[in-house]
Structure formats: C-alpha cells, structure tokens
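Journal club prep — side note

Before the paper discussion, L.F. wants everyone to see what a predicted structure for a comparable chain looks like in token form. Sequence:
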Amino acid sequence: MTALEALAQPAFFTTLSVVVGLAIGSFLNVVIHRLPKMMERDWRAQCAELRGETPPEEPTLTLTKPRSRCPSCAHPIGALENLPVVSWVLLGGKCSACKTRISARYPIVETLTGAAFGFAAWHFGFGVAAVAAMLFLAALIALTAIDVDTQLLPDSITLPLLWAGLLLNLDGTFTDLRSAVIGAAAGYLLLWSVYQGFKLATGKEGMGFGDFKLLAAIGAWLGWQVLPLVILASSLVGAVVGIALIVLAKRGREVPIPFGPYLAAAGVIALFWGRPLTDYYVRQLF
C-alpha cells in the first residue's frame, strides 16, 4: 500500500483531518483575536493620512508577529502551552504565570474546527471536495467569532472566500460554474435589496455590507439553488435566537444582533445537506 492509498483510507483520513483541524483551530483563534485589531490600525493610519498627518507608530502586529503571549502579564506562550485543547485543560484554563483565566472560547474554537474537519473528511471522502470544504468551514468559523465580537465581517476573509468558490467550481467541485456565478451575484443582490428596502422604510441600516459578501461567497461555493434554503434557515435561527435574547437575557430591541453567524450556520447546513433539502422542498411544492 502506497502512502497515498493509506491516506485515502476513510478512518485514517478522518482522524488526520481532526488533528489538522485542531491545529487550524488554534490558528483561527489568532485570526479572531488579531485581525480586527489589525483592521483598526489600518483605519487609524488611513484617517491620519486623510488629515495630512503622519500615521501613528505602533508596535508590529500581524497574524504571525509578535509571538503569542498572555494579554494580562505578557508571559510568552511556549510550545507546550499551545497544544490545542490539551494545554487549556492541563493549565486549568489559566495562564501558567499569572493565573489569569483564559477564555473557554479557545478550546471551543479548536474543538469545533477539529470536529468540522473530521466530519467533512467523512462526508466527502478523500479528495479535493473534502479539503475545499475544510477551507470553507474554517473561514465560516473565523467570520462567526469575529462578527460576534465586533459586528464585522472582514473583506480580507469574505472576498477571497468568494473568489475561491468560483475557482473551485471551474471543475464543478460543488456545483457547475454557471450556478456558482449566478449564486455569487444573486447572494449579494438578495441581501442588498433587503438592506435598501429596510433603509427606505425605516431610515435605518438593518445589516452590514459584510453580510451581502458572505451570502455571495456561499452562493459562489454552493450555487444559487441553495440560496433560498440559506436565507430561510438563517432567518429562522436568527429570529429564534433574537427573541430568546430579548426575553431571557433582557437584551434591548435596539441592541444590534450580528447576522453573520446565522448565515454561516446556514452555509454549513447547505454545504452538507443543501441539495437533498432543496430537492425535498421542491418535491413538496410540486
């Protein structure tokens, strides 16, 4: 048995994908934490330039620099302290130096990414579709967490995701290219139309442009046929969660609720079960 044949074995490929997913989840935590801060720095620099001022000098901050450290005491995170999930458990969810509590989000994101990668490997089997699905899922997880924190869906994730979907579907990985192109355009225009209608009726902005781009990306990956399912599922979940927050958490109606996480959840449903669900829905209608 060759190495490639061994890798293609379902059990081995799924297990390996879980391990890789845990490591990618660790990196996604960095993206979730640092990318909004990097965007804020860029905005400050652009504003300074527009005012004719010299942009303020700030310490280097990228996805790789500086080295990860405790935000409370600046203790550098060693390799053994950075093992996905395991290190958090062994450290009792606290910094090894100052004992400040470490958010449970870190192991949750790592576990979720590992599970998502493993399920994608099992569902699609060894091949391009599985690896592409993992990329799609990783982007959705990062976008969800960033939107929850900041109500932002960064162009640096949504736009490459859209183009990646179109390129992958040149060979019909998830849908044919025609459906992907129409899906990208229709996804954007659907929410753009809702946005314009709501703004015209109320004078307020009901959602951000990042939501348009995310739905366009989902359409580019999975085709226009799944868009009704994505809109319906995301709206239902969003309505249920929003009502629950208002009733149970006493959250005011005027407090904005990010829509990106619901689009992402619906995108995951469409990735794995979109076609069967859409076919079933159409059969019920006709």
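L.F.'s comment for the group: The mean pLDDT is 88. Keep this in mind when we get to the figures.
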